[in-house]
DNA sequence: ACCTGAACACCGTTCAAGT
DNA sequence: ACCTGAACACCGTTCAAGT
């Protein structure tokens, strides 16, 4: 129904160029980089849940199976997308401040990427201990510096991870919506501030809750020893 | 390939029973209750992501469109499933203790239901402010009692909600897995305790982090006024 | 080496039809 | 009133084939 995307037509008859790049801008062959770029485009515009192998192939102007030459399956594609989306995050230097500050600096950057890539949290929350090891390691190093025991470093990281990547799913697009019947009392009182959930206030509150909570666990750990 | 499920064959020729229930156990007609029960069976055994309208119809031994006579679409089915799965939660009495204790009592019950219904957190995390109003209201009332401002009641609830329903997705089934290359330093140190993530320790730590963190926000709120 | 095309086993859902 | 059957527009993926 829609027009085809503005990408070039399947570039097979442009000339007798055997391999490599064409003189013009048209792509003679795909590449992993192009595939990831196209996937990221879809994710940024329509969100991860709209990214399908078939949609990706349309975006690239190739047949549905073409991307499979470069990626084994969809889950590998999502791994590549996640890695690309999280690229450019700078790990705070150890001297840049106390652990709480360094942790926030790291979390803030991740959250920024998540905002730009709707639904990405969903991808990242599951794979957790399999991918993005460098990033996770950086967070864990901060927690070690804070004084957490190895066991609590893992658990504390999992707590952060759960909150950070789950956050994006809460109260996303769905507008106010026709709320049914008359609302329960406390619910109605609180709901006067729904708009706060979309903005920075909820973010600040939530992250502060987690970090302050972690501080409390650190104190408990030390007074238990 | 598989055998058909052990449910009765499509019960059309059992007798000339016009309507209502048959003398035997076979169902002459469907009902919302039966549909929800079948859906819950699928969820408990295989998880929410295996629950499809078609799988549900197979489970019931009817044609794929039959359930649509009782539920408008899949999202309505999921709402019914979520409500049924959360049934039986007892809201702690106001006199049963301080807010932290009452909140935990509520959260513990919800988490128990979530454990029995894999993937249900995913359903609940999105609908948040549209369904389960009574449960949400109960949580919010506790937060009001604690002394949170209306705005912070909503934000605090959202923080709990995010963590509680996101928790189930982290480190679920995927076994140890063939971890690649050699691991980064802090990561490797912490990973010696992976097994803790599946057990009660992670739950205790995480919930304590959130509640202690909320306490800290309450103090901040009061000292800011 | 790189891509296409047909096919399979799935989805959710609409719509007309059967009893 | 309650259910079926065919059909449509989607998925991910396998497998054989084309250049």
TrEMBL record, chains A, B:
<feature type="domain" description="HTH tetR-type">
    <location>
        <begin position="29"/>
        <end position="89"/>
    </location>
</feature>
<keyword id="KW-0804">Transcription</keyword>
<dbReference type="GO" id="GO:0003700">
    <property type="term" value="F:DNA-binding transcription factor activity"/>
</dbReference>
<dbReference type="GO" id="GO:0045892">
    <property type="term" value="P:negative regulation of DNA-templated transcription"/>
</dbReference>
<dbReference type="InterPro" id="IPR004111">
    <property type="entry name" value="Repressor_TetR_C"/>
</dbReference>
<feature type="DNA-binding region" description="H-T-H motif">
    <location>
        <begin position="52"/>
        <end position="71"/>
    </location>
</feature>
<dbReference type="InterPro" id="IPR001647">
    <property type="entry name" value="HTH_TetR"/>
</dbReference>
<dbReference type="GO" id="GO:0000976">
    <property type="term" value="F:transcription cis-regulatory region binding"/>
</dbReference>
<dbReference type="InterPro" id="IPR009057">
    <property type="entry name" value="Homeodomain-like_sf"/>
</dbReference>
<protein>
    <submittedName>
        <fullName>TetR family transcriptional regulator</fullName>
    </submittedName>
</protein>
<keyword id="KW-0238">DNA-binding</keyword>
<keyword id="KW-0805">Transcription regulation</keyword>
<dbReference type="InterPro" id="IPR036271">
    <property type="entry name" value="Tet_transcr_reg_TetR-rel_C_sf"/>
</dbReference>
<dbReference type="Pfam" id="PF00440">
    <property type="entry name" value="TetR_N"/>
</dbReference>
<dbReference type="InterPro" id="IPR050109">
    <property type="entry name" value="HTH-type_TetR-like_transc_reg"/>
</dbReference>
<dbReference type="Pfam" id="PF02909">
    <property type="entry name" value="TetR_C_1"/>
</dbReference>
<feature type="region of interest" description="Disordered">
    <location>
        <begin position="1"/>
        <end position="26"/>
    </location>
</feature>
